[in-house]
Amino acid sequence: MPRYGVVFTTTASALVKVEADSPEEAREKAPAELDTGLCHHCARRIELGDFEYDEDDADAVIEL
What we know:
Layout: H1 23-33, H2 40-43
């Protein structure tokens, strides 16, 4: 009997906490703090794309 591979896709998000004086400064600092690695077990089966944020999304930066 033939074997088949089935690809599943999903959306991932990451919350990066930074100290900043303004939302704009937080957006500038956050990419340097983003850690999107996977453990070796998960990395065998999951591929992550690049993380981005929508500059027009008012909820992209929240005060904690």
